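Narrative of accomplishments. A recurring question from our advisory board has been how the design workflow behaves on a single, concrete structure rather than in aggregate. To address it, we present the structure tokens for one chain from the evaluation set, followed by the sequence designed for it. No filtering or post-editing was applied between the two.
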């Protein structure tokens, strides 16, 4: 994946990190509220792991916001990234039909996540 792309999970992670910090919640507390380890939550927030629908709603509950508000914030961030020329994609999973053809480079994906974090950080200030 080119470094000027990012994933939906990475963008969601940045949205959650920003909300968590605004509310003064530490990663460990967020993880505890969601019923996952701090390391697992850290991987979710950094975009290294993908969120399940259950985890998305558990994160919203931990932040004491509605799931619809969290998904709306995600949608707004994705739209803003697209406006700024940063495509947000869903990477092919190992069990996907075209997974062998994807050419996805995990290092590039993380670079895209870093770019997304930078852009979202600038947009939320």
């Amino acid at each position: 994946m080119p470094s000027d792309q990012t994933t939906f999970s990475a963008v969601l992670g940045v949205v959650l990190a920003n909300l968590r910090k605004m509310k003064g919640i530490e990663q460990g507390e967020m993880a505890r509220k969601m019923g996952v380890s701090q390391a697992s939550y850290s991987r979710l927030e950094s975009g290294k792991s993908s969120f399940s629908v259950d985890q998305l709603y558990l994160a919203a509950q931990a932040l004491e916001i509605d799931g619809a508000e969290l998904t709306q914030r995600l949608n707004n961030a994705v739209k803003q990234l697209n406006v700024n020329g940063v495509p947000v994609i869903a990477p092919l999973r190992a069990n996907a039909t075209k997974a062998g053809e994807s050419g996805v480079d995990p290092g590039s994906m993380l670079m895209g996540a870093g770019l997304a974090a930078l852009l979202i950080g600038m947009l939320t200030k």
